[in-house]
Amino acid sequence: MLELEDPSVHEALEKAAGREVAKMTRPASEVSPQTVRTPVVGSGRRCPVCNELELSGRQTVCSAACRRARTRQRETAARQVRDQGIRVLLETALRKLEEGGP
Ligand SMILES: [Zn+2]
Q1: 35 in a domain, yes or no?
Q2: What's the pTM?
Q3: Which terminus of the chain faces fewer neighbouring Cβ atoms within 10 Å, N or C?
Q4: Ligand 1 mean position, distance from CA 69 (Å)
Q5: Could you tell me the distance, in angstroms and rounded to a whole number, from the CA of residue 62 to the centre of ligand 1?
């Protein structure tokens, strides 16, 4: 691997082959080359939210809109679970009250 953090190396690269080399050897992607193992093309995975657009790389949804939608779905599900829990607790509390006792 080329070490591009060193300014002199960076400069030498640019002089040697122009600015394109620096751009190509330093992609803007947040994923480093070492962590990419599975090929992107032909993954066949689709966005689980809209189920229309194909995902690429490490995407889990196709767009920001779908990400928001998925977050909303999760919040709704979590709220339903919580409401269910509260309902059970309330019913238990009511039953205890009706039973009387200590
Ligand atoms: Zn989508």
Answers
A1: no
A2: 0.43
A3: C
A4: 9
A5: 4
Q: What digits encode the pLDDT tens for the residues 81-96?
A: 999 999 999 999 999 9
Q: What span, in angstroms and rounded, lies between the C-alpha atoms of 49 and 70? A: 6
Q: Ligand 1 centre from 76 Cα, in Å?
A: 18
CA of residue 12 to ligand 1 center, whole Å: 43
**100 in the same domain as 76:** yes
Distance 11 CA to ligand 1 centre (A): 42
Please report the pLDDT score of residue 15 as a whole number. 75
Contacts of 37-41 spanning 24+ positions with Cβ under 8 A = none
State whether residue 54 is helix, strand or coil: strand
Query: Is residue 56 a contact partner of residue 43, using CB atoms and an 8 Å limit?
Result: yes
Count of alpha carbons within 13 angstroms of residue 82, beta-carbon side: 6
Q: What residue numbers bound the domain in which 21 lies?
A: 1-29
Is the same domain home to 55 and 93?
Answer: yes
Instruction: For residue range 13-66, list pLDDT tens digits in order.
Output: 567 776 655 555 555 555 555 655 544 455 688 999 999 999 998 999 999 999
